[in-house]
Design a protein that fits this description.
Blueprint lengths: L1 E5 L6 H6 L6 E4 L16 H6 L1 H12 L3 H12 L4 H19 L4 E3 L10 H4 L4 E3 L3 E5 L2 E6 L2 E2 L8 E2 L1 H11 L4 E4 L6 H4 E2 L4 E2 L4 H10 L3 E4 L9 E4 L2 E5 L3 H4 L3 E4 L1
Parallel strand pairs: 1-2, 2-3, 3-4, 6-9, 7-8, 9-12, 12-14
Antiparallel strand pairs: 1-15, 5-6, 10-11, 13-14
């Protein structure tokens, strides 16, 4: 059995269309949407609406962790614009292309920049969306928990720690634990290019220690200090920043 795993697709529909080649199934750990490409500020919803110069400034402020200034600039740019309508229209356009690229079967959960309420509209037969749910693939039980935790970035699908922990508890024991964010381990949460810690989950770390899955798979941190490490019996793997690599991580058994 061969499963390909991707995360942080961020608009790379061309790569996604090939991600399942040679696999029995594709697993996607979220962040389909591209709001702003920190490597190429001309790409994404933000520069499409406000231009590259505004994107340059937002990235500069966020990278310097001047989040309040970034929010002030953002509020000024959005003034007079129906933000919800504009974002939803842009996200719908991206989702139409990205969901059409999913092979059959695909098992997917949400990232922190995704909008879960729109997924049922685009998920076709052959794409199974799971969040706080489990599924058997080739004899192994995969558990999925999507979204991110509250952060200064205030991305669309951030939830409180209690809600996240409840979704984890609903999974029970699984062979492969799939999440968008990593467990709260410094080496797995630190982004070496952004030079900051992303939020990991303490509840996810506790679940790994308590239930001892074979694998814990995740994304979210684009350039982690450590891409994999073992926690007890569990191999923890950051499956990679698919938007830039277009290369899935391969799990075979």
């Amino acid at each position: 059995m061969r499963v390909h795993v991707v995360s942080d697709v961020h608009g790379n529909a061309e790569g996604l269309a090939r991600a399942g080649d040679g696999a029995d199934a594709l697993v996607c750990l979220g962040d389909l949407v591209l709001f702003l490409d920190y490597a190429d500020h001309s790409r994404g919803i933000f520069p499409e609406l406000f231009g590259v110069e505004a994107a340059d400034r937002i990235v500069e402020l966020r990278t310097a962790r001047r989040f309040e200034e970034a929010r002030t600039l953002s509020r000024a740019l959005w003034e007079g614009i129906d933000r919800d309508k504009a974002v939803e229209e842009a996200v719908r356009k991206q989702y139409a292309e990205l969901f059409a690229a999913f092979p059959t079967p695909t098992y997917a959960t949400f990232g922190n920049v995704d909008i879960p309420t729109l997924w049922p509209e685009f998920a076709r037969p052959g794409t199974t969306v799971l969040d706080g749910e489990r599924v058997e693939i080739g004899g192994l039980v995969f558990g999925f928990v999507g979204g991110g935790l509250r952060s200064p970035m205030r991305t669309p699908y951030e939830i409180d720690e209690e809600t996240y922990a409840a979704k984890l508890a609903a999974l029970g024991e699984v062979d492969v634990l799939c999440s968008h964010i990593p467990p709260d381990v410094p080496e797995l949460c630190y982004d070496t290019v952004a030079r900051r810690f992303e939020r990991g989950s303490a509840a996810l770390l506790e679940t790994i220690r308590a239930t001892r899955p074979r694998y814990a798979l995740f994304g979210h941190v684009h350039q982690p200090l450590a891409r994999r490490m073992r926690i007890g019996a569990t191999e923890c793997v950051n499956v990679g920043h698919f938007a830039s690599t277009a290369t899935p991580w391969v799990l075979e058994w």
